[in-house]
Amino acid sequence: MIRSVVRGYGAALPKRAVANRELEGVVETSDEWIVQRTGIRQRYIAGEGETTASLGEAAARAALDKAALTPADIDLIIVATSTPDNTFPATAVNIQNRLGMTHGFAFDMQAVCSGFVYAMATADMYIRGGMAKRVLVIGAETFSRILDWKDRTTCVLFGDGAGALVLEAAEGEGTIADRGVLTSHLRSDGTHKEKLYVDGGPSTTGTVGHLRMEGREVFKHAVGMITDVIEAAFEATGTTAEDLDWLVPHQANRRIIDGSAKKLGIPSEKVVVTVDLHGNTSAASIPLALSVALDDGRIKQGDLVMLEAMGGGFTWGAVLVRW
Ligand code: ACO
């Protein structure tokens, strides 16, 4: 049985870190309010010349280095993003070009904060279907560019960055002891559109638009949706919260993360939290968090790792990986 095994990882952040205190001069807010409600202490904001594609390229190069591979070894690039460099062509094709690749194929995936789990599930399908052997799965965002910097209810929450994994086809036994993606569960429900969306687009306003959010409404649905897909992943594999070595959630907000872990009975020592460092980087948050926990030695080969996310749409999903 073919499995999609993680062979390398990488991350990239803009040069400029912006602490909560700095935002006190932008909107009426405070470090205390932001930390208490969200757990965020700082975020990185892209400067001149830094774009979704440049950050994605840097993360991809770091992942290739870790995997001891070159762009020549890759046959598919999937970029999860809601903040592409251009409406088209896809940022994935832009990154393919930046990597000097004219072979293989590349496309973007748009599922907002759930983008990375959607991209992982999709890459796994291409690998298991035999259409790709090595896939660069990238989550890259520059949300700072779609924020309304006069709206304190949203602008303090988000940041920019990118992370990448290299997935590679490998033979497995078909058991949960196999390394690689074990199961993926994706969901969406468009009835929630108005709770989290961007108020512009090429086919409506002809503008890029700004992010709009009813924070309380998002919060109300988040924990239930997240725990549903995680429970589906446990059920599909016959595993439980006790078998899990790490939960690596989308980093939107400390209270959502803690609430989900508590409901699932996952102790906080097994939860990777980086929202304090990066803010909410949408599709980039999971690979950025993975990068931190792999660099500091928490996540090791053989560990059972649950990735989960929920975001605009709503979209939500979970991917269970034996590292
Ligand atoms: N600084 C200071 N005060 C603020 C700020 C701010 N940045 N933003 C809002 N306030 C004020 C509000 O105006 C309100 O004041 P009022 O009582 O005088 O009207 C007060 O704080 C409370 O506002 P609420 O919106 O009720 O605050 P809440 O406790 O719900 O926290 C938050 C807001 C953090 C957005 C919360 O609802 C939340 O975490 N929601 C989840 C949203 C989220 O994480 N979205 C990320 C994208 S989706 C995803 O990735 C899953």
Please, could you describe this protein's structure?
This protein starts with a strand and ends with a strand. It has 2 domains: 2-171, Thiolase/Chalcone synthase (Peroxisomal Thiolase, Chain A, domain 1, 3-Layer(aba) Sandwich), CATH 3.40.47.10; 180-322, Peroxisomal Thiolase, Chain A, domain 1 (3-Layer(aba) Sandwich). It has 10 helices and 13 strands. It is of the alpha/beta class. The chain binds acetyl coenzyme *A (ACO). Residues 29, 33, 37-38, 113, 152-153, 156-157, 196, 213, 215-216, 218-219, 222, 250, 252-253, 280, 310-311 line the site of acetyl coenzyme *A. Acetyl coenzyme *A binds next to helix 2, helix 6, helix 7 and strand 12. Belongs to the thiolase-like superfamily. FabH family. Residues 251-255 are annotated as: ACP-binding.
Strand order of the largest sheet: 1-7-6-4-5
Structural classification: alpha/beta
The SSE order reads EEHHEHEHEHEHEEEEHEHHHEE
CATH superfamily of the largest domain: Thiolase/Chalcone synthase
**What's the number of structural domains?**
2
Taking all Cα atoms into account, the compactness measure Rg is: 18 Å
Major β-sheet annotation = 5 strands, mixed
Region (ACP-binding): 251-255
Catalytic activity: malonyl-[ACP] + acetyl-CoA + H(+) = 3-oxobutanoyl-[ACP] + CO2 + CoA
Domain Beta-ketoacyl-[acyl-carrier-protein] synthase III C-terminal: 235-323
Pathway: Lipid metabolism; fatty acid biosynthesis
